[in-house]
Amino acid sequence: MSLIGPGLSLVLFYKVWRTSRRLPRHWQRTLSLTAASITVVTLALSAVFLNSDYTDDSLWTLGWGGRIGVVAISVIGLVGIFAALALKSRAFGRFSPWMAIPLDILAGLLIYLGVLWLSPQVYYTFYQMIFTDLPVQIVIKSPVDPDRLHQILIPVKGGSLADHLASIGFWAVLPFTIWQHANRRR
Question: Which among 60, 76, 41 is positioned nearest to 152, based on CA atoms?
Fold first, then answer.
């Protein structure tokens, strides 16, 4: 059963790639592939989401306006990350594919991890706007927290909603980057 999700998600990604490869490059195409890449990874990790209980997550301490704000920040952040990844892939496209693709994937994952490292401060600042009694402080921890990185790389039942969503974004970098280079060679 665990192979059905990844298998179906790869078929979906292949279908999206086949239908979009003849279209001219522009921001709408990049945005649609971002959505497809995230969908692929979400389907592949669906068992984690279905078996996790997020009732203790801090998102539920917010009202509807706060929840919508957190979702909006997340969506804007993901779109911004994948736009930066598309620009980065365009720069790596000048090299031979054997060198460009691995370096591009590595650079993409490092960019994603950098944003992931800084993102708690963005969310904390938003929480400060909602809960005015929160103190002004830096909540960013050391750049490489091995426990959190492990939770993101290998999402497990019982993990936080933030870590599971970060895992989707992290693993979506791979199909997105490969797609960027697959279309360049045509």
Answer: 41
Q: From residue 94, give the alpha-carbon distance in Å to each of 34, 62, 108, 157, 184.
A: 22, 46, 16, 42, 10
Which pTM value belongs to this model?
A: 0.72
The beta strand positions in the chain, using DSSP E, are: none
d(CA 30, CA 36): 10
Task: Kindly give, in sequence order, each residue whose CB lies less than 8 Å from that of residue 182, ignoring residues fewer than 6 positions away.
Answer: 17, 21
Residue range 15-57, pLDDT digits in tens: 666 666 665 666 666 677 677 777 766 666 666 666 667 778 8
DSSP state of 143: S
Q: Where are the domains positioned within the chain? A: 4-184
Angle at which helix 64-92 crosses helix 161-184, to 10 degrees, equals 30
Residue 104: CB atoms within 10 Å: 24
